[in-house]
Amino acid sequence: MSLTYTAGSLVAARGREWVVLPESAPDMLVLRPLGGSEDDIAAVFPAFEDVRPAEFAPPNADDLGDQRAAGLLRTALRVGFRSGAGPFRSLASIAVEPRAYQLVPLLMALRQRTVRLLISDDVGIGKTVEAGLIAKELLAQGEATRLAVLCSPALAEQWQGELREKFGIDAELVLASTVSRLERSLELGQSLFDRHPFTIISTDFIKSTRHREDFVRHCPDLVIVDEAHTCVAADDHTQGGTSSAANQLRYELLHRVSDKADRHLLLLTATPHSGKESAFRNLLGLVRPELATLDLESPAGRAKLAEHFVARKRADVRSYLTREDGLADDSLAERTAFPSDRWTKDEPYKLTPAYRALLDDAIAYARDRVEAAGEQGRREARIAWWSVIALLRSMVSSPAAAAQTLKTRSESATARTAHEADVLGAPVAADSADNDRLEGMDVAPGAAETEDAGARLLELAQRAEKLVGPAEDAKLKALTRHLKGLIAEGYDPIVFCRYIPTADYLAQQLDGKLGKKTKIAAVTGTLSPQQRLERIEQLAAEAAEAGDDPAVRRVLIATDCLSEGVNLQHHFDAVVHYDLAWNPTRHDQREGRVDRYGQKRDQVRVITMYGEDNGIDGKVLEVLFKKHRQIKKDLGISVSVPDETASGVTDAVVEWLLLHGRQGSQESLFDLDGGQDSFARVEREWASAAERETTSRSKYAQRAIHPEEVAREVAAVRAALGGADEVREFTLEALRDLDALVRDPRDGTGDFTAQVGGTPAGLQSALGATLGNRLVEEDREIPFRTTPAIARGEAALVRTDPAVGAVASYVLDSALDVKALGPRPARRCGVVTTDAVTTRTTLLLVRYRFHLTLPSRTGERQLVAEDARLLAYEGLPQRARWLDDDAAAALLAARATANTHEQRARNQIARDLDALPDLADHFTEYGVRLAAELDASHRRVRKANEEIVRGLKVVPQEPADVLGVYVYVPSQPAASVSPAAPASTATGAEA
Questions:
Q1: CB 449, CB 384: distance < 8 Å
Q2: Cα–Cα nearest to 311, from 109, 121, 103, 99
Q3: Could you identify which of 432, 467, 509, 847 might form a hypothetical disulfide with 399, taking C-beta atoms 3.0 to 4.6 angstroms apart as the criterion?
Q4: What is the distance between the alpha carbons of residues 566 and 578, in angstroms, rounded to a whole number?
C-alpha cells in the first residue's frame, strides 16, 4: 500500500530529494526538486518507482566553513528561490529586477477584480516591463490563463523576446507572414487562439475581417495593447486618410474586446492625449465605459481615473522612495540612471554650385507644374501638389533619392478625385507622431504624373546621378566630418534618413571612410522587422569581437522604420538627423531609441543637419523646431506638435518656395498672403497643446498608490529575496573563492569584471549557456554591472540574472554535497571567535515551506512556496534566549578576531547539532508567526479584492529544514591576535 503525501512534504526518489506539489494524486506525485525551479518539475508513479519519505539531512560537524560561510549560503539559497511565499508570485521567477516605480502599476492591478489600466509612462521608462510584470503575476495567480499582445508588426519580435527572456512567457507570433503556417497546423474548427495560449498579434493581422472575427470570438482573458493611441481616432477625424481609417478599425475591434466586462485589458502609450480631448476620452472609454464621460475637473472624477491611469515623466521617477516622496528617510531610495540630458547641435551645410543649379531647376519645374495643374482642375492641382512635395523632399535628401523620385510615378497620380489624391499623397509629407504607416514610409516617393517620366524629369534625374559622392554632395561631406568627430570621442552613432535610397547611398559612400575599425550597417524597410533586429545584433557582435579595442566603433544608418519602439540604447549613444523631419516629434522618437533607461552614457549626443541654402530646411527648423525646443525648455517636457500645425507650416514653406525660389526675396515667410494669420494660429494651437500637457501632468498625477505603500512592499521583497548590495557582495566573493580572476576598480559604480577560465568546469558550462560559450572558452573579461539594463555578454548584479543564478546554484550545490570536488565557498557549519558578541551565540539558517491556497477567478490555486530565515539565540540550546530578526541578520557581518582551535570548533558545533530536536517547538512557533505575516501581506496587497481575500490560506509545512548552523564565540582576553597575521577560523581543511 502506497503512502499518501501532503503538499509541501519531502520525499526521496530517483536518487534525490523532492518537494510534493499540490497537483499530486495518490497514484501520481508531481514533484519539484528541493531547491529546484518550475522547469525541473517531474511526475513520479509510486507503484512503479521507489518513493519514500525523506528528511532534510542536518549539517555535518566535520564540514566547517569560515566566517563568510553563513552569508554566502543564505544568499545562494535566496537567489535560487523561484517560488517565494510573498504576495507577488512572479517576482522570484522572472529574469529582470524591476525598479521600485515599476511596481506601481502592478499594485494598482492587484487591487482590481478585473484589471483595466491605461499605462502612459514616458518613453524609455519601461512600460513593457510594467505590462510584463502584471501579465506574469495574473498568469501565476491563475487570474488569467491566456494572453494576447497587440502591437505593430515592427515591434512583434521585440515583444516576443522581452516576454520570453525576462518573464518566461513563450508567445507565438501571429503576423501576416506567419498566419498561413500557423493555420495549417490547426485541427478542424480550431482557432489560433485556442491552440496557442500566448500570442503576439500584429495590427496588420486584424485588417482581415475573417481574422478579426476569429480573434474577437476566441479572445484571451488578458489583452495588452501597445501604442494604444494608434487604436483610437478623434471624433472629428480631421486628419482623414488611411491612418484615421486604420485607427477607427482598431478602435472598433478594441471596443468589442473591452465589452467583455471580465477581460483584463492593459493599454500602453506614451502619448495618450495627442492634442485631442475626444481621442483621449475614447481611449479612457476602452478602459472603463464610465471613464469616457467622467468629470475630470472634479476631485472625485480624478480620483476615479487614478485607479486606472498612471502617467509619469522621467523627472517623476529619476529619484524615487526618497524624503521628497514623503518617506521618513532615504534607506529605500532608488535612483534610476536615465541620461541626464541631450547634447544637441544644429549643423548647417551649403549646396555645391552644381547641386544648387539642379535644385533651382527642380523648383522652376515644380512651379510650372503647379501653375499648369491649377488651370486643369482641383484633382490635377492636388496631384501636382503632392508630386512637387515628393520631388522637393527627395531632392534635399540625397542625389540617390532625387534620381529615384524623378524616375518614379507619383502614387497620387492614380487618384480619381482630389480627395483621393490627398489620401494617397499625404504620407509623402507626413512625419506625424501618430502616423501608423511607418512600414513602407521610407520608400522614395514618385514625382512623375504619367507612367513614363517626361523628358524634363529624366534630364533632372541624370543630373542628380552625376552628383553622388563628397565632391558634389556637400551634405555627405559634412556628415562624414561629423561622424569622424563623434567616433573620435568614443561615440557609436545612428544616422536617421527619410528614404531607403538615401540610407543605401550613405552606407555605400561611408564604407572605408570612417576608419578601418569602424563597422557600418544599414537598416531600412526593405528588411523584415526580424531581419532588422538581426542586422543590428550582427553589427554589435562584429564590434564586440574586437574585444576592448577602443578604436572599434559602430555606425548604423537607418530610416524611420527604426524610429519607434525599438530599443537601441545598449549599442548606440548618439543620433544624427541626416534628413530633417517635418515634425519635431519624429526627432523625439528617433532620439528616444537611445536616450532611455539602460543607456550607459550620461549624455546622449544629437546632431541635426540642415541645408542652409536649400530653401526648405532652414525655415522648417526656424518655425517648428526652435519653438518645440523652447516649449521643452520652459516646461521641462516634450509636447507633441499637433499634426495640423506641422502640416500647415510645411505647406506654407513649400508655397513660399514656389513663389520666391530657393534664394527667396526680401519678403519674409511670415509676410506671405495670409501668413500672419496662419502662423498666429500655429502659435495658438501649440500654446494650447503645451497648456493641456502642463495641466494634465498635475491633474492626472499618479495618486492611487502612495510611495509609502510601494516602500513597504519593496522592503518586504528585499527582505525575502535579497537586495542589490547583498547580491553584489555575494557574486564578488563567490567568484573569487571559485578561482575566477576578478577585477574590482572600486570606481564608485559597483561594477567589476571576472575571467572564469580558472573556475570549476560545472560553473564554466553554466555561465557559457547564459553568456555565450565563446566568451567563457576564450576566458574574456565578463562585465558584472549594477544596472539591470545590460548588453549581450554582460551580467546584471541582480538575483534574477541567469549568470548570478548560475553562481548561486553552484555555491548551494557544492555546500550541500560534502564530496564535491574543487573549491566550496559556502559550508553548512562554522565556528567564529569574534568580539561582535559578548556571549555564546548561535545563528541558524532555516528554510520554511508553506502551502498556499490562493482563490482566483478560475478557481483555487494550491501552491507550495519557500522562504529562508535567519534565527539566532544566545546561550546553550536548552536555555536559548532568542534574538529578534535584525539582531540575527547583524551576525552575518561579524568577523573573526581570533583563531579557533579545530577540535574546539567541532565540539562547539556538535553541541548545537545534537540539540536541534530541542528547538523544534520554536521552529514551529516561528513558522506559524511567519505564515500570519505572509497572510497579512497577501491581504494588504489585495485589500480591494474582498472575494479573493476571503478564501486565502497560508499554512506552514513541518518540519522546517535547518540548512546551516554557525556558532559565534566571544573573544577571550588572552586570545590576542598578532598584527603580522590576519585572524581566521580554524575550520578543518580550510583552516
A1: yes
A2: 121
A3: 467
A4: 19
